[in-house]
Each structure stands twice: as C-alpha cells, then as structure tokens.
Amino acid sequence: MSLALRIRDLIKDHAGEKALKGISFEVPEGALFGIIGADGAGKSTLMTILATLMDADSGEVEELGLDLKKDFKILRHRIAFMPQRFSLYPDLTVVENLHFFADLYDLDPAEKQKRLSDLLKFSALEPFQKRRAGLLSGGMKQKLALCCCLLHRPSLIYLDEPTVGVDPVARRDFWILLKSLKSEGITLVVSTPYMDEAKLCDTLLLLDHGKVLDSGSPREMLSRYPYSLYRIRGPKPLAYSARKEPPQGVSLVYPAGGELRAAVDGGMNASQDDLWKDFPGANASESMTPDIEDLFFALLSREQASLEKTVK
Amino acid sequence: MQASIETRDLTRRFGSFIAVDRLTLRVERGEVFGFLGANGAGKTTAIRMLCGLLQPSSGTGKVAGCDIQTETDGIRSRIGYMPQKFALYPDFSVEMNMRLYGGLYGLKGQALRDRMDVISRLLNLEPLLSQRTDSIPWGWQQRLNLACAILHKPEILFLDEPTASVDPVSRRHFWDIIAELAASGTTIFVTSHYMDEVEYCGRVAILVQGRIAALDTPVGLKTTYGHASLGEVFLDVVERAQTTSSTQ
Ligand SMILES: Nc1ncnc2c1ncn2[C@@H]1O[C@H](COP(=O)(O)OP(=O)(O)OP(=O)(O)O)[C@@H](O)[C@H]1O
Ligand SMILES: [Mg+2]
To answer: Is the CB of B14 within 6 Å of ligand 1?
Structure first.
C-alpha cells in the first residue's frame, strides 16, 4: 500500500525548548490516523509543520510522495489543515465564508458552485447558508470550518482537535463526516483529547514530550496494556484524589465516568479477587478489559503524579 | 436555608430569538451542579446572566443572596467566573496574571500575597509562577484560569467548559480540585461536553433550546432514561426534544 505520509526523525525547538525530539512514523494512504497525548506533548507543533506552515529544524517529511521542503507549494494545493482555532469570518454568512475560502484556492466558477452545493449538503448546513458564521453553534462552526478545508479537494487533511467544545450529538455527526471522507479515499490525520474518538481511528500515535511513546491500531496498543484492571464498586468516583497514595499493591486509582478503576501490577492472582477490601466504602471489585483511556492513564499518569508531588 | 442560586422564569431574547427560556432553578450551597446542553442551547448566556454580566429580558434571579439585575457589584465580589473564552494575558507570567486578577477583585498588598501563596500551593502552580503563561501546557493554563477565579474566595464558582481540550489525566486532576473546593463549601456551577466527568456532579440539568429538559442526579437520570451512561442519556434527551420540536 502506498504511503500518504512518511516522517523521519523530525526535530523542532521552540524558544530553546525541544518541542519535537525526533519523531518518525508512517501513514498509509486512505487511513484515519489519530494523534493523542498529554497537553503540550507536541501535537499542534507536529501538525503545523506537516501542514507546511512552519519549518522543522531537521528531519525528512514525504507527503503524498513529494518532499515537504522542496515541494511545499504544490503540496499546499493538495493538503488541508484545520487548526485548533480555525478562523471563520463571523460577519460573513455561511455561504460567504465558503466563497471566501474558495477564492483563496482560485477555484473556477463552475467548479466552485458545484463544490459549494455538494459541501453544504454533505455537512447538513444547507438550511443555514444565509446565517452569519458568528451566530452558528459551536458544532456548526466546526462543520463549516471543515467544509472550508475541503473546497479544493485535498487528498490529505490535518485536523487539530476539531471537536473541542462540540456537543456530543454534533461530535458524533462530525465523526460520521470524517468516516465518509475516509471512504472517498482521503487520508485524515486527527488529534483529539477525546479517547472515545481515538478508538475510532485505524492507527494511533501516542506522543509524549515530543517523542513517540507508542503507536499501532487501538487493538494492538491495548494488547500492550501493562496492568490488570479492576472496577471497584461502592465508592464515589472522586473518592480517591490523585494526590492520595493508592492502597498497597495498587498502581493507579482513577475515576472513569460513574465508577472507580484500579490498575494492579502483573496478572490475576488469588488475592486480587478481594481487591475491594482495600478501598473504604467498597463492596465489590471485578476484572475488566481496558480501553484507550485506561491505556492513557497507565502510560501517562505516573509522570503527572510525580509532577504534582515534586511541587508539593 | 438560602439557596446559592435561585432563578424564576429567567429569560433572555436576542431580537426574536429566545436563547434562555423561562429558566427556573435552585442550587444549594456546596453543590456541584452540572449544566449541560447542545451547542447553542443557552448555557453561556444563562451563566452570563447569573454572573451579572448580561441583563435578562424577563424573570428574576438571586445569586449568593444578591439580585442579578440590581446588585451586580455584590455578585461580582461573591462569585468566581471562568469564562469559556480564555481571558488571561498569554505573554504575562503566571504570577503577573494572578496579581492582575487579584487586583481586579480588590485584593492588594499582603492580603493578595497571602492568597496567591495559598492558591498556588493548592493548585500546585508554585514552580510555574515565573513562566510565561502561553509557554505552559494548556491543562495548566486552565488551572491558572481557575486560580485567578478563586483568589478572592468566592462562595460560588461558575466554570464554563473549564476542561475543553484538556487531556484525560489533567482533567482528572482538575476535578480533584473542584471536589476539594466543593467539600469546603464552594458552590460549583459547571458546563462540559465531556459526559464522563459530568458523572462527578451532584445534580445535572440538560438544557434544550434554552429550556431545562431534564434535571436530576446522575443516577436518577440514568434510571429514568434507562441508560448505563450519561452520554447515552444526553443523546436521548436531546434527540427526543428535537423530534418533538420538528413535528410541531
Ligand atoms: N449577542 C448575541 N446576539 C445574538 N444571538 C446570540 C448572542 N449571544 C448568543 N446568541 C445565540 O444564543 C444561543 C445560545 O448561545 P450560548 O452561547 O448561550 O450557547 P451555549 O449553550 O453556551 O453553546 P456552546 O456549547 O456552543 O458554548 C445561540 O443560538 C447563539 O447564537
Ligand atoms: Mg457556551
């Protein structure tokens, strides 16, 4: 299968700090590729570089078979970037915003008209085309931003946290849109703080402090989950502050929705069936299969906890 | 007992559009109250009215004992507000932002320094004080935002999507702090689009087109609607409301 993206040893310093410390990965054509990581891990820096808007200090990037450094002008017509805070023009209507971005890409009039009406249909924004962008809801704004990025028919799209601030219904619809773009063969690279979205990607890249901590399909990554995971029944989910030491033998305790979870080193053994006895207020514990969010906690919370402690 | 927040038929129109529609609500002291709704449901508009920043079109409300239309100064000194849009100076240091905000709330001199010490210890911001605000990770910027909102020991804290774009581990730490504040008697009024963290609220309201469509404890909501998670309850409530409004 051919590659949409091939990255070798990408390095970038930001004001003396290393933002990217040698990143390498590949994205196959037509993939829905997710980037996750703690705040400040380097996700936005990486995307901004790949979208040709910032230079890396060193490293090689091949995008759609072209060299990022040499061919960035051609690439700009074939890729799209939806930055974290995409700027729509609040005083222009939905359709005027689309016209504005279409003109940036020099679309010819016939092509532009066809594309506009296709995109308005595809995003379900047709009934709102005369509404001023500033008055759209958060989810509608994000959909319009996506449409603005799609006008020039890119084959590779970078989306930096496109669903932040978007409500659950609109978020679900937005991902249906992304999947339909994927089915047209478009390659999508998406970063997200929502682990339920990460699960929908073909491949994930977990960034940490400018380095790749892990990557693979969600299933592959979950097969490397380092603990045994338990659901603890009884206590309120926030009963165990991250500042408190977990009970003896337990590596991590954290809330997950309405419940409390505990990660224990190593596999099952007899003593763990009554794990709940170590938790005041608990009345049962049961073994459970980890999800991407559990993996995120497993790989990244120790460090955050030590950060919290060193400053105490 | 006096409620922390009490409204009756609170309404806000923009032209002919009704953004908040006869909101009647009572929140007790020390409650963590989750205020949910789809984009455009009216959450921010309602919060701005409760904070005395936007005049209602009709209806009444009291926050921390003060009338939201006539006693806005009283409200300003008794509440903390963390707006949805980041309101700090990105190129100032963490410490400078705290000092500025303390000043806005009338804190100065030793009293301000003492409060800054307490809050930066509580929120673990001490090692970051001299750093430029935009150089620290987003989750920590939001924590600073929270620090600025609680410097003057508000009785009630309004948090408008405080954890948007914050990673799961930092969100967890953020909620630990919210739980500590609530345990010490601060009333929390919070919006979020993360349905998992809404489970940590004592009670949750779901707003649909400016009106409360559901209001109960997380367990109560899940039982009433027969779903395992608040995420499913949310989709259910919002979609039911949409089908009724489109058949009208
Ligand atoms: N100044 C204004 N003029 C006209 N309409 C407005 C104004 N402020 C808000 N609105 C409209 O009121 C409705 C409610 O907006 P509000 O910002 O309160 O929603 P929200 O629930 O906070 O949404 P989100 O989850 O996207 O933050 C929206 O339809 C919005 O377009
Ligand atoms: Mg809002």
So the answer is: yes
pLDDT in tens, B159-204: 999 999 899 999 999 999 999 999 999 999 999 999 999 999 999 9
Pairing of strands B156-160, B79-82: parallel
A66 domain residue, yes or no: yes
Q: How far apart are CA B94 and CA B135, in angstroms?
A: 10
Q: Which amino acid is at A140?
A: M
Same domain, A115 and A196: yes
Same domain, A68 and A154: yes
User: Between chains, do A243 and B161 touch, taking CB under 8 Å as contact?
Assistant: no
Same domain, yes or no: A121 and A196: yes
pTM of the model: 0.92
Tell how far the Cα of A35 is from the centroid of ligand 2, in angstroms.
Answer: 26
B223: its two tokens: 């039982």
Angle CA(B6)–CA(B7)–CA(B12) in degrees, nearest 5? Answer: 150
Measure the CA–CA gap between B86 and B141, rounded to whole angstroms. 9
Number of folded domains in chain A? 2
Q: How does pLDDT run across A220-254, given as a tens digit for each residue?
A: 999 999 999 999 988 888 888 887 888 888 999 99
Q: Is B52 exposed, middle or buried (0-12, 13-18, 19+ CB in 10 A)?
A: buried
In this complex, is the C-beta atom of A306 within 8 Å of any C-beta atom belonging to chain B? Answer: no
SS3 B177: helix
Q: Report d(CA A12, CA A89) in Å as an integer.
A: 31
| Residue nearest to ligand 1 atom 8, measured at CA | B45
**B184 contacts in chain A (CB < 8 Å):** none
Note the pLDDT tens digit of each residue in A167-203.
998 899 899 989 999 999 999 999 999 999 999 999 9
* Residue A295, domain member (yes or no): no
CA pair distance A306, B27, nearest whole angstrom: 36
Q: Directed axis angle between helix A109-122 and helix A94-104, to 10°?
A: 130
Counting ligands in written order, which one lies closest to the CA of residue B23?
1
Write phi, then psi, for A136 (nearest 5 degrees): -75, 155
Identity of the residue in A164, A241, A296 whose CB atom sits nearest the CB atom of B168: A296
